[in-house]
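OP here, attaching both records as promised.
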Amino acid sequence: MTSANFDPRDLLAEARLGVLATIKSSGVPQLSPVTPFYDRDADVILVSIAEGRAKTSNLRRDPRAALEVTDASGYNWATAEGTVTLVGPGTDPNGPEVDALVDYYRQAAGEHPDWEEYRTVMVADRRVLLKLSVDRVYGQRLRG
């Protein structure tokens, strides 16, 4: 792919590690490494995060966020910006909040070897599904 026809959404779809930027109450960015999954059809980025963490608290106060990903070389990058919706945490391993995390896992990684264990851990860890609705995507292909 040449830089002339580079689509940063392709890089979003391939990436399995990114940096999520949220906004602290002071207005300063807060950055966190995350494992994103880009649902290209819905134009939404999904990430499993934990309740009580800085990024979750920041997003509950201000839902604006950005996610940056790079390829293995580090020279080619893409950034997605948008508004986040948070689902969870759930208190019932079979409830809708945990079902949403199961759907995310299936899309991102396929089938889990023990869904009952996964569901129990999602409740115990107070996991939350972050859904970033992509409003803007930009990036650059510098090499390769």
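Record two, same layout:
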Amino acid sequence: MLIVGAKGFAKEVLEVCNQQNELENLMFYDDVNDDIGNQLYGQFPILKSIEDAKEYFQNIDNRFTIGIGNPSLRKMMYEKFIAIGGVFTSLISTTAIIGHYNVEIMEGVNILDGVKVSNDVKIGLGTMIYYDSIITHDCFIGNFVEVSPNVKVLGRAIVQDFVHLGAGCIIFPDINIGKNAIIGAGAVVNKDIPDNCIAVGVPAKIIKNRND
């Protein structure tokens, strides 16, 4: 397995790999940061060029996941590593509770400890769900969504692609969160949020349109 990124969220993903006994031939990829050396924790090699990653896919293991939180960067890394033969792979913590009925989890999803996902839920490509978040029944979570710790998404809510849900926010039932929206930490969303908007507060109010 190759983890794209070698800081921050990549360290959280490493713990899930440890739970899943996926440490053999595990490597990281980081061609941006010069201060990380050649190994993480003195154990896991850090690849530094796309040519090295391509060789890894061809000769060792073609699976990769993304250890970067930002939704747009996750999409960029997905496209970059798929193009050289990588297979986008989900990692789900052994302590997460996933419903048994009509749950669809797409490729490249990262689900961390303590997450609960109910029945009739779809989670899109490359989405990340952080510690102790709850996705209740009949919810739809789009592609490359970032769900921060302790978020609650309640029945039939829709969270569109590239949304960032801040820590501890609550999305009420039947709410639609538009593409590229950002919901602030601790916000309580009881009305639909259009595309590209930033909303904060209790109840959540739109404070900015990202297009502006």
